[in-house]
Amino acid sequence: MTSGGYFKSVKIVHFALIAGIVFFALTSIFLHQNGYKTFGEDLDGPFLIIVPLLALAGIFTSNFLYKKRINEIDKQLPLSVKLVNYRAALIVKLALLEAPSFFTVIAYLLTGNYIYLGIVLILLIVFLLYTPTKEKLINELELPLAEVEIINNPEAEID
To answer: Quick check: is 27 in a domain?
Structure first.
């Protein structure tokens, strides 16, 4: 695989996770605007506590586990292994944001309370802040110059 191919695949995963949340949120909004019956205030009280706590827990847990997994990557490993471990850490980080995002959209779907869409928007902004870039990878993995040159060359083969 080339460096360019690696980053393309990682960005596709990132985009797909965001697109899934956006699509589900837009579908939920469409349903509400076309007469979908909610469960109303029966669930809104508990959700007003659970949803923000779950969103915050997702943000903090995703960062904590991501940093932990990144720090566990041995700097002596071949670049290809580092990249596999980096992608795995990134997927865990994004999954821990995706779960509360979907739960929040479900809360909106069940209650019709627009506060939940605001929380989803905040989570999507965090998702966008987590967009994988070459610069982030280079800094977070503290790559040596030889590996930086491979990463920066989209045609370079990753051994």
So the answer is: yes
